[in-house]
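Can you make up a polypeptide sequence alongside its tokenized fold?
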Amino acid sequence: MYPNKEYLELVSKYGAYSSWAIWDYKNQKDSSIIDKNIGDLHAKFVLLGLNISKPLKGSHWINFRLGKHDRKLKYACNETLLRGSYITDIFKGIDEPNSAKLKNTLTDELINKNVNLFEQEMKDIKIDNETCFIVLGTPNSLLAQYFNKYFKQKYNNKIIYYYHYSYYKLTDRQWVQGLWKKLGIIQNFDEVVKKYE
């Protein structure tokens, strides 16, 4: 879907903030697997987070690979129709693990800047009317509140709201199977997990 030149432009513009739903079976943190599978990348689904919790260091597309709960995304996506989907945060470059503190730092100017960046980002990855947004937060979450109030106005796309992958009340199995159920994905969780052992 992305010719090499376009892909390199995406790396340049968004590689420091975002990622794609492709993981290496042996090393979850190795984002070079994305460079080797450009033909699998697509914008049929866009998974959305709020912001990074700590600064990102390393190669491009490293976001959503270094955290202690990121394996759930790997289990949910890597073997299903979600493989190759785009993953990004609506607020870029703001590292704050506490959402209440984040809320206090968001000025109108900062929100507008990120809304404009998001709109350009969606244009650059070539979403269309069939693209489904997967908001990694319940409808009451801060992410959903900001997304609904500021970011989704220009889009008539299908939106699915689902628990963030760090939600402590759900086991890996419960979180992954719950997302699969929402998307109508039939897959064997145990078989998927075995591939990473």
In short: The chain is about 40% helix and 10% strand. The chain has one domain: 4-194.
